[in-house]
Each structure stands twice: as structure tokens, then as C-alpha cells.
Amino acid sequence: MATSQLCIPPPQGLLQPLVLPERLLLGPGPSNIPPRILAASGQQILGHMHLEVLQVMDEIKAGIQYAFQTQNQLTLAISGTGHCAMEAALLNLLEHGDTVLVAVNGIWGQRAADIARRLGMLGTAGQHRWGFPGGNHLSLCFMQGLARHKPSVLFITHGESSTGVLQPLEGLGDLCHRHGCLLLVDAVASLGGAPIFMDQQEIDVLYSGSQKVLNSPPGSAPISFSERAREKMLRRKMKPPSFYLDMGWLANYWGCDGEPRRYHHTAPINSFFSLREGLAMLAELGLENSWERHRANCAQLCQGLCDLGLELFVKEEKARLPTITAVRVPEGYDWKEITAFLMDNHAIEIAGGLGPSMGKVLRIGLMGCNSTSGNVNRLLHALQDALKRCHRSRL
């Protein structure tokens, strides 16, 4: 037998069976996946240009149009997470000479500003910052920046998952259009859990993610462009700086341009199967029923947290994001100890703060199939146990 030339042996961990715990994911995402969606992801793979897969893509497109409440033809799912959709929106809309105004009311505004800055589209005058901490939504008074800076695009987050704030959008699209500006909205944390009407609210670009209310694995991101936004992209002088996220290519692959579909990339087929089922479950439940379910369970959670003596980060009820609730870390506690206790003793995940809310809050997610009265009661019971066991005076 010939002597092996291998210098690195097989990893021992890979020679063992894969064993994973079962946990109730009540953090800001991902959410638990229902059996129906798990089964869809376990279907045998097909080719990315097979007619059956193209049919699934068409059904996804229709499901996104329903979830977004839009008739936009340029509607599809990007092969990537919500971050990928954020980057795709910015790099397709903006080119040399454009300016973006970013409303920063948490980490997602910060991320959008970072991407825009990397693209060379954001100067110091192109960014509006919200004074943190606040627990309030942004007032439209900052929109005087539209007249002052004359941006091509305004970015704003509808559901700010780092703070649990729901941003009102009424009148914002009309205001942007009167200033010759496109409105770009991040709805990753809010889609399906809070009302949003893309066409009625005159939103030009809207995107979300698969792993929140849609209860699908991370890795596909619904996105839609208005006719205004599509026309701006068609007027570009230079191609977008990314081939992978070039909306011209993606629009063709998704059958949005009326031309024969051409190969662009090998799509995550099984992720699309899952996303299709997530959108189907939302359609079967009905948007209005989904919105009401999330509102009611969030209200039950908030009342229960107050009954435990905890302080909600967002004071105003109508400013609370129904999918993710932020509660202040109580004095005398370490948020890491609380989250670890819940994970170790109750198999429940909640999260600490993120970005500007780091160390200040605990974040609790109730999204899609996880948004139930039973899960609220289970979480409150576990939190009560944690508050008894994790106070520093006991250490």
C-alpha cells in the first residue's frame, strides 16, 4: 500500500453524529421553523433553471407582493440575508454624484450609513442621527434635511430591532417625492407583524428577511422596487459595482423584465422552497390576522413584564414594535447572566441589546409561529425564575 501524503487527519468532530439542542428562540431572530417549512427545505433539490423551480420563484414573487401590498413588477427574493438586501438596494439606487440621507434610530441606520459611506455616497451632511437612548420613533421634523441636502434616497428603518421601536411611515413617501427623493425602507423585523402598505405609503424600495415572521431559514431576502426606483436604475450612467447584486440581472432571472430568463447565479433552491412555504402560511393566515396576533401577544408580554416590575424601553404603546420588545436591564442584574440562565435552565433564547442598546436592554422576539400566548406565559415564568436567581446580591 502506498504511503499516504496527507498531513492533516480528518477532523474528529466531523466523525461524530450531528447533535443539536431544541430551544425556543424568543430573541430578535431567527425564529423557530414550523414542521411544514422544515419539510419544504428537506425536499430533493432541483436545478435552478428547471421549470418547477421557476414556478416556485413566481409564487414567491406573488407572495412578496401580497406581504408588501404592492403591484410592483420588480419584486423578488435576493439570495442572501437582510444585510444583503440592504446593500443591494443602496448600490443599485446610488451612483457617483448621488447623496443618501440616513435616518439613524438604531443599529440598522448605522449599518446603512456604513454601506453608503463605503460606496462614497454619504458625507457628514448626508446623515441624520437620533440621540440615543430614547425609545421613541423619529419625528418628521428632521425631514427639513430633505430640502437642505437634496438627497437622492432617504433610508429609514420601519421596525428597529435593536430598540424595539416601530417607525411611522404615513406621509413620508409623499414628502420624499415632493423633494425629488426616493424612499428606502428596512422592514426586516416588522414584515408580517406590523401593518405596512408599500404602494399606499409610496415606498420606493422595501426589503425584509426570511427568518423573522416568515419563520424560514436565514438566507433569502424579499425586496421590491417601485416604478420610480426602477426608472432611476435604468438611467444609471455606470453599472452597479456588484455583479452578484446587479438588479438588472436579478430582475431577468426572476422574470421581472418580460425577457427570456437567463442564468445569473445558482440560487439557494431549498431556501426558496422554505420561503415559498413561509409566504404561503402568511397568506393562509391573512395579513390582518397576523398583524392582530402579533399586536395581542406583544400587549400580553408587555403587561406581564410590567407585572414583574420590569421597565419597558419604549414608553409609548403605539411606538412599540409588535415583533420585538425591548425591556431595560433591571438594576443589580447582568444581562448576560439572565440570558445564560434562561438558555441553560429553560431552553429559551432571548438577547441583550445590539449596537447603541448594548448593555441597556433585553430583547424578546415573538414572531410568526413563535408569537403565541403560551410562549408568552412560558417566557414570563422563566424570567421570573431568572430574576430570583440572578440578582448580584445572591452571588
TrEMBL record:
Positions with a binding annotation for substrate: R363
Keyword Metal-binding attached: no
Modified residues (N6-(pyridoxal phosphate)lysine): K212
EC class (word): transferase
EC number: 2.6.1.44, 2.6.1.51
Cofactors (names): pyridoxal 5'-phosphate
Keyword Transferase: yes
GO BP terms in the entry: glycine biosynthetic process, by transamination of glyoxylate
GO molecular function: alanine-glyoxylate transaminase activity; L-serine-pyruvate transaminase activity
Catalytic activity line of the entry: glyoxylate + L-alanine = glycine + pyruvate; L-serine + pyruvate = 3-hydroxypyruvate + L-alanine
Domain (Aminotransferase class V): residue spans on this chain: 42-379
InterPro entries: Aminotrans_V_dom (IPR000192), Aminotrans_V_PyrdxlP_BS (IPR020578), PyrdxlP-dep_Trfase (IPR015424), PyrdxlP-dep_Trfase_major (IPR015421), PyrdxlP-dep_Trfase_small (IPR015422), SP_NH2Trfase/AEP_transaminase (IPR024169)
Keywords recorded for this protein, A-Z: Aminotransferase, Pyridoxal phosphate, Transferase
Pfam families listed in its UniProt record: Aminotran_5
GO cellular component, one term: peroxisome
UniProt record similarity statement: Belongs to the class-V pyridoxal-phosphate-dependent aminotransferase family.
Name of this chain's protein: Alanine--glyoxylate aminotransferase
Species of origin: Trogon melanurus
